[in-house]
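**User:**
My hope is that you can spare some time for a protein that puzzles me. This is the protein in question:
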Amino acid sequence: MNRLANATSPYLLQHADNPVDWWPWCEEAFAEAKRRDVPVLISVGYAACHWCHVMAHESFENEAVGRLINDGFVAIKVDREERPDVDAVYMTATQAMTGQGGWPMTVFATPDGTPFFCGTYFPRANFIRLLDSVGTAWRDQREAVLRQGAAVVEAIGGAQAVGGLTAPLTVELLDAAADQLATEYDRTNGGFGGAPKFPPHMNLLFLLRHHQRTGTAMSLEIVRHTCEAMARGGIYDQLAGGFARYSVDAHWTVPHFEKMLYDNALLLRVYTQLWRLTGDRLARRVARDTARFLADELHKPGEGFASALDADTEGVEGLTYAWTPAQLVEVLGEEDGRWAADLFAVTEEGSFEHGMSVLRLARDVDDADPVVRARWRAVVGRLLAARDNRPQPARDDKVVAAWNGLAITAIAEFLQVAAVYAAPDDEDANLMDGVAIVADGALRDTAEHLAKVHLVDGRLRRVSRDGVVGEPAGVLEDYGCVAEAFCALHQLTGEGRWLELAGQLLDVALARFAAPDGGFFDTADDAERLVTRPADPTDNATPSGRSAIVAALVAYAALSGEVRYREAAEAALSTVAPIVGRHARFTGYAATVGEALLSGPYEIAVVTDDPSDDPLVRAAHRYAPPGAVTVAGRTDQPGVPLLADRPALDGRATAYVCRGFVCDRPVTSVDDLVAQLG
């Protein structure tokens, strides 16, 4: 009996009609395996995963394979996005056994959950042989299987970074991290490493802050080059905005077409901050259109942001997105069709499959003649309208707390910078204003949903869907990302309730997730016990729970003036510091937060009756040092500690700048404020 029909996870629901007798992750499944004396098959994936779909079609939808699984195993299906703790434990085991990991993840375990054989995608014939081999080993070589499992558990337990070396995160370590990134930087294509190539968003955030602190030209150049290469490549949707998960090649041409909320949130922050620091027009456009993508394509009114758009459309990768020259001519006419083919590098040979091309931006448009820009905008509009009539990828519409926190923080920063660079005479001003309005609405809607639906009895839940909260408990990254988001919303709105909620979440994290060495576990002390308690300090596709909670602790300490939260942040960061200088690509968010701590961070309070249109507020956002917090409003505004006991001088708007709880004299002119921030 397949038990997935009532799941809240879209990924599990995709498997609800399989001939496999799937169980969701639950104690009852393991009890059934023990009763039957059979191994457990744990299959982990997510809704937007292309190869998860392939394995499902080849194996899990096959009646003969289903019978083999049902006869010899208890099968458990896990959504890695819903249960990142389960995924983390078994991914560590998979990497320990095979030297690599990925999804779909295929794990065979004893009835107590101990993994003894791990892998990823298996074609049907290989999977059938594997099922037979594992079943035979379980029956005839049980002792060897159990010894293998015990060795794996010992290995993955030792892989967790709790109780290891600690050291302060110093200037020298952060400079070493920046130097290491410069040596690994792909000077031809941008980014780091070869194919497949992932957007290095957290490393880029770190390098922007490093450049701002040090003035190092190379740090800024890496960001500029990588951002331009990605934005001109096929990994970026040239029509609707938003980034795909990764490029299958080294030069950003052909994407793996799934679009993840977390990637787009983090990349929105990168392009927003590049725009803020340089005024770059390409960065501005990409930030604007990525914010629009989030608000238009992923936001679910009354709930929050959906998790992803699928890699496939009707089982075919790229069906929605790829074009031929003839298709361009069909939509645009002969002249504009040829012009668009040149602009977007669409050729007869194709850059993708079957003579199709993924749109890339082969010519400059951001600094082009206004006539060219007008033509480009018209072409984009017509192509997008035609594309909207094609079959569309499915949307994984569960709301993940941590990823929604990332989106709130990114949009809050975007709105602040958009206000800084408001230009009524700009040709795109109306579009920017429109995007700001819808993004602001999506941000507030999402925050309310997290506060009212995901926060249950003072504890965070990981996911919700259709307005109903799921059972999985929030993990450390949920507490960190949502608390940081509430701090960002407090700064954007001046409302005290968001800072109060952030403090409540951080208190739970400190009470329930803290490790003896000052670090943190990824699961709470009262969470379900797995074969090991995960505590991964490295930043991968998203910030680690440890980096996320440190970022929130730093922001909250600066906004509240409560030193103990800063001390907790410094202690936790010291558990990551030993690997920052040696493994910079996997500690990008930790290094980003480290730059904020080295900077102060600055605490900027602007006393004003008009926070939305005050030159001091705009200057604070434009010139804020790395990780600075900024609030604006009336003196003694309720719930805003940074505005307490800070009067306006001579009835004029007044800025107060502090650093590490030590304050400069209040100023009333933009020039004086900029000087203090420099």
Q: What stands out?
A: The radius of gyration is 25 Å.
